[in-house]
Specification:
Layout lengths: L1 E5 L12 H13 L4 E4 L2 E2 L6 H14 L6 E4 L2 E3 L4 H6 L11 E5 L8 H10 L3 E4 L10 H9 L3 E5 L9 H9 L5 E3 L12 H10 L4 H5 L7
Parallel strand pairs: 1-2, 2-4, 3-5, 5-6, 6-7, 7-8, 8-9
Helix pairs in contact: 4-5
């Protein structure tokens, strides 16, 4: 099992503040059956610090080298107008230095996500829309268009426990539009917990269970 959206790299964003919290989150990941973790600290137009994040990642890997788990570096990029240009200049982190890009959008300002996905694709990138269920301005049909334009879709595991997202997640799951279920873990409160979601998927969408919890997606 792979968790592609985490904030376990400590001291770099609103995620884990220290080594102890990161250790707690890694232990939680292991308890949940995760074998591979993508560390995705926030990046945006004002705060890229790519070289610093790479250095922190190398130190992090050395610190937790005794854990039986594979760590990879990426980022969660908050979309901005010149993002593609900065990607081409290697000023932003892709997942494991591939063409896969985890992109976050505003939850308040209505954004044409479908067109942005299309632009990323024609420029050679493989966009993953972070926690798509959290964008209230998207219609159910928008999900189809976003997928049609080449997006991979990620949803948060904890969202399956919240009634506010029921309709959206039901549609996404019924149409098999979800590619990744991830923790988006930050700390002890926003932790890594897949147990409820595993039971829910096993009961309601059994045929999709292995896709999320037994297969290891390869980023290359």
């Amino acid at each position: 099992m792979i968790d592609i959206h985490t904030h376990i790299l400590y001291g770099v964003d609103d995620g884990s503040p220290n080594s102890e919290t990161s250790k707690f989150l890694i232990d939680e990941e292991i308890k949940n059956g995760v074998k591979k973790i993508i560390l995705t600290p926030h990046q945006n137009e004002e705060c890229k610090r790519t070289i610093e994040l790479i250095e922190r990642f190398e130190s992090f890997k050395n610190e937790f080298k005794d854990y039986n788990i594979d760590f990879y570096l990426g980022s969660e990029i908050y979309y901005y107008s010149n993002m593609i240009d900065d990607l081409k200049r290697n000023e932003l982190l892709t997942i494991n230095n591939t063409k896969y890009v985890l992109v976050e959008f505003s939850t308040d300002i209505e954004t044409d996500i479908s067109s942005i996905i299309y632009d990323l694709k024609i420029n050679g990138y493989l966009p993953i829309v972070a926690h798509i269920e959290r964008y209230p301005y998207l219609s159910l049909k928008d999900y189809d268009e976003i997928k049609k334009n080449g997006a991979l879709i990620q949803v948060n595991s904890k969202s399956f426990e919240r009634k506010i997202y029921n309709k959206r997640l039901k549609y996404l799951m019924k149409k098999n539009l979800v590619d990744f279920i991830s923790s988006d873990c930050h700390n002890e409160k926003r932790n890594c917990d897949f147990e409820f979601t595993k039971r829910f998927i096993a009961k309601k969408y059994k045929k999709q269970y292995d896709k999320y919890f037994n297969d290891d997606f390869i980023f290359e």
